[in-house]
Amino acid sequence: MDHLLADPASAALIKQLNPNFTAPARPFKRISYIEAIAWLNEQGIQHEAEDDKGNVIKDEAGNPKMVDHQVGDDIAEAAERRMTDILGVPIFLHSFPLELKAFYMKRVEGSGADGGPVLTESCDLLMPGVGEIVGGSMRIADIDELLAAYKREGIDPGPYYWFTDQRKYGTCEHGGYGLGVEVSC
Q1: Whole-structure pTM over 0.90, yes or no?
Q2: For the stretch 60-91, what's the b/e string if a residue is b when 16 or more beta carbons lie within 10 angstroms of its beta carbon?
Q3: Which stretch of DSSP H or E encloses residue 36?
Q4: pLDDT, mean of each 10-residue run, the chain (185 residues)
């Protein structure tokens, strides 16, 4: 951002698009997923209850039943945006439960050992007035762990030989090159 604001052309464009823009202060606030769940509940920010198939549960009047957040719930965009707008600063929301993230995300070492959730080395960047703008994670580097993740998710590793072979022949720890748009049908 500093580089863009130092360049007269890009700085003029930024001011044209948003005359009141000010660069966010650093470092950005960091909140773990578990801390965010507690914060949302302390603030009385609830979410719609869902049944085991993901359908919204409604009360007798047909309105969605609202419930407190629990560890294991996916934090909906509306709750993330309320949290970010109330705090008023950019937030790195990190360390999500394994079940909520993609199979190829690396686990936080030692998480789950105490009976709590297994967490991922992942984060989302949330901006006030916008919500989530980007997410990222470290990727599994160990082939046995990756093969177990395929199995856990019921994924045939065959079509992903190119992704698996990187671990087979050695890879470095990295936070990119996940599965997504680069997967062909």
Answers
A1: no
A2: eeeeeeeeebeeebbbeeebbbebbeeeeebb
A3: helix 33-42
A4: 87 90 89 98 95 92 95 92 95 95 93 93 91 89 94 94 87 66 41
Using alpha carbons, select from 40, 122, 32, 38 the residue that is nearest to residue 76.
40
φ, ψ of residue 42 to 5 degrees: the values are: -60, -35
Pair 10, 71: CB distance under 8 Å: no
Smallest CA-to-CA distance from 133 within 97, 73, 84 is with 84
Distances (CA, A) of 104 to 15, 119, 137, 141, 152: 40, 13, 9, 9, 11
| CA proximity to 24, closest of 135, 175, 134, 125 | 125
pLDDT at 178: 43
How far is 80 from 117, CA to CA, in rounded Å?
A: 20
Q: Which residue has the tokens 């698009």?
A: 17
Tokens of 64: 């969605």
